[in-house]
Amino acid sequence: MNILGIDPGTIRMGYAVVKTVNQQPVELVNIGYIDLSKISHHPEKLKIIYEKLEEIIQKYDPKIMSIEAPFYGKNVQSMLKLGRSQGVAMAVAFAHQLSVVEYSPKKIKLSITGNGNASKEQVAKTLKSILNFEYTDIYLDATDAMAAAICHCFQLKNPIINSSSNHKTKNNKKNSWEKFLKQNPDRKL
């Protein structure tokens, strides 16, 4: 199954398609970014985002879109524009019946590097060790998108998240582990 990772942006929108087998990332199918830097009219940027992502979805047939949630900055206008670009990305995913999941930048970095405050360069270096690929600094927005896709793979492998009960209270954590162990008797802890 292919997962489409998205790092929303209004100057550059990173994307990556990651092939998974048994919820494990096995291949980087495609990586890149949509360059919107030369377009000044914001609605035109949104139109291009929709069209380019639609092409990517049609070509690579992902089943899930994993998208980085916008972080809260000081500039309200930038935040609104970023939210619109994320909304358009999600709309094209919904139009093609993709499931959409959203992760905070901190959650993605923590999942990939073990450090929620890791730099883009640290994330890219760790991703290179997970899936061997060549990158340059120009692709850092794209490697953030790849990180979003792989973060989702890691979340799928987490037995607590996969259990039918996603409420993490003291009482049902034990039940979730018990259920996981019953469903997976061959797993060793």
Helix and strand topology:
Elements (H helix, E strand, L loop, with lengths): L1 E6 L4 E10 L2 E12 L6 H19 L3 E5 L7 H20 L3 E5 L1 H9 L6 H11 L9 H17 L2 H4 L7 H14 L6
Parallel strand pairs: 1-4, 4-5
Antiparallel strand pairs: 1-2, 2-3
Structural features, described:
With 189 residues, the protein is of the alpha/beta class. The chain folds into two domains: 2-157, Ribonuclease H-like superfamily/Ribonuclease H (Nucleotidyltransferase, domain 5); 163-189, no CATH class. It contains seven helices and five strands, in the order βββαβαβααααα. The protein has helices at residues 42-60, 76-95, 105-113, 120-130, 140-156, 159-162, 170-183; strands at 2-7, 12-21, 24-35, 64-68, 99-103. Strands 3-2-1-4-5 form a five-stranded mixed beta sheet, with helices on both faces. α1 runs parallel beside α2, α3 packs across α5 (140-156) and α4 (120-130) crosses α5 (140-156). Mean pLDDT is 86; it is low at 162-174.
What distinguishing features does this structure have?
single chain; 189 residues; alpha/beta; globular
